[in-house]
Amino acid sequence: MTDNILSGLGLTADQKAFRKRIIGGSDANTIMSGNDERIMRLWQEKRGEIESEDLSDVLQVQLGSFTESFNRAWFTKMTKRSVTNAGDQMVCLDHPFMGCTLDGLTDLGETVWEAKHVSAFAKEEEILDKYRPQITHNMIVCGLKQATLSVIFGNHKYACIDIALDEDYAADLIEAEADFYSCIQTNTFPVIISGPYTGPVDKIVDMNGNNAWSSAAADFIANQTAAKLFDTAKSGLKDLVPVDAVEAFGHGITAKRSKTGSLTIKESK
After folding, report:
1. What residues form DSSP beta bridges with 153?
2. Who's near 266: CB < 8 A, 6+ residues apart?
3. d(Cα 118, Cα 115) in Å, to the nearest integer?
4. pLDDT grade, residue 114 (50/70/90)?
5. For the chain, domain boundaries
């Protein structure tokens, strides 16, 4: 019985073959990681020089796979939003080298749904940073502008985190993935995207000769008052939302409350 449960986890043979042909969501995490070893290994895997890493004995990976169906059901129970298309293989129309195997879609197919089972001590902002490449990749592949992370923290906390597509980040990701795919096709070593700087922070830099700085500085000074008004209005709108309301709207603005209680203010569509 135990062997049957474990053997049913993870990707099918067809899904594994599909992943070898395209750049997938988890590949996006690797490409943007800045980790030389992981990126080189992925390049070798995609070229067929080495086998993909065996994750069958990695508890975190297998537990996430095992709890995905429960996560899906819990998400629907907590939010009343159904999930469809689980396991579907998608290929981007604009960038055919990009693809993904969906955890699912929600909101009648308008939102990418991604399931995660993480440490009980993880923070929401850490989860967003860690999986931003993957969730952005999947939105690009599906041609959608919104996604939700359905996250189980250990065994005591659940959060549904709604995410809007960051167009600038998406453009950077597409460029990075296109470069990586080109390296696979041409048998060229990939250029490693630098991770966070970890060296000394002690320089004082004169930016007076930098035109980009000059332009950004002018915009910053010119829009300080508007930014303060925006922040004040946003705070005021949040204060006006009744504590028992999951959504409030009017005059072109919509406020939505997540399961964690946080409010998101957006222009109404």
Report:
1. 118, 157
2. 164, 253, 254, 255, 256
3. 10
4. very high
5. 11-186, 213-267
